[in-house]
Structure to design on (239 residues):
């Protein structure tokens, strides 16, 4: 392992080997942090725009103060950090299935996410987001049945391209209804997707929520020299 590449953490998990690595990109002259699951890239610090917009677009739909927010999937921390940058946020519950990912942040391995773990509004919960939606307790075992103003989700690649087959049912109307039950009236559910807007998934959202929209989020791709795009879905529960 040379100076241009360092594996900061690695652990075998029930869904595969997850690793965090840092490399120096000689062309861009920047430090790049990447997360891999086995040989598949999950996320990169080169492409944070849509993860940031997931929080911005979701919270922009919220009225009032003292917001209680759930972030599903911690990753590199961009969505969680952007959530905390909104002064209206009173509490942030981060639901992450892999304890090692939480540990990366507690150990300060990600300099651009500094302060996330130390913020008094933040609480990490090591749990399967999808199992929590389907369970009786909900996201917060300390307060079973607790409801939230917003749930921001970034775990799977898209509703059609899931990391584990057990996640697929969440994206159908029955799974989305269980998620909606964890929201306060007029609460927001927002979802990141690597795919273009999906008409079938948008139809499932509109079947369950009062309204739903798909936002295309373009961003510069320094690897191709062109532009790429992700999708952020934002749905509002019945008021």
């Amino acid at each position: 392992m040379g100076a241009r590449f360092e594996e900061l953490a690695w652990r075998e998990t029930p869904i595969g080997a997850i690793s965090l690595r840092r490399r120096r990109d000689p062309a861009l002259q920047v430090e790049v942090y990447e997360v891999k699951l086995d040989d598949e890239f999950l996320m990169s610090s080169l492409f944070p725009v849509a993860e940031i917009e997931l929080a911005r677009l979701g919270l922009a739909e919220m009225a009032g103060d003292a917001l209680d927010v759930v972030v599903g999937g911690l990753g590199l921390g961009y969505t969680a950090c952007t959530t905390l940058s909104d002064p209206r946020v009173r509490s942030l519950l981060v639901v992450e299935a892999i304890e090692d990912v939480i540990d990366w942040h507690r150990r300060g391995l990600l300099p651009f996410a500094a302060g996330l773990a130390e913020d008094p509004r933040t609480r990490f919960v090591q749990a399967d987001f999808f199992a929590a939606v389907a369970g009786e307790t909900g996201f917060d075992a300390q307060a079973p049945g607790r409801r939230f103003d917003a749930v921001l989700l970034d775990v799977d690649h898209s509703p059609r391209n899931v990391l584990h087959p057990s996640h697929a049912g969440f994206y159908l109307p029955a799974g989305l209804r269980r998620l909606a039950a964890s929201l306060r009236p007029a609460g927001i559910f927002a979802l990141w997707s690597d795919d273009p807007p999906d008409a079938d998934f948008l139809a499932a959202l509109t079947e369950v929520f009062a309204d739903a929209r798909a936002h295309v989020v373009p961003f510069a791709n320094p690897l191709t020299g062109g532009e790429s795009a992700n999708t952020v879905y934002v749905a509002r529960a019945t008021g």
About this structure: Residues 49-60 form the longest helix (12 residues). The chain has a mean pLDDT of 94. The longest strand covers residues 183-193. The chain is about 20% helix and 40% strand.
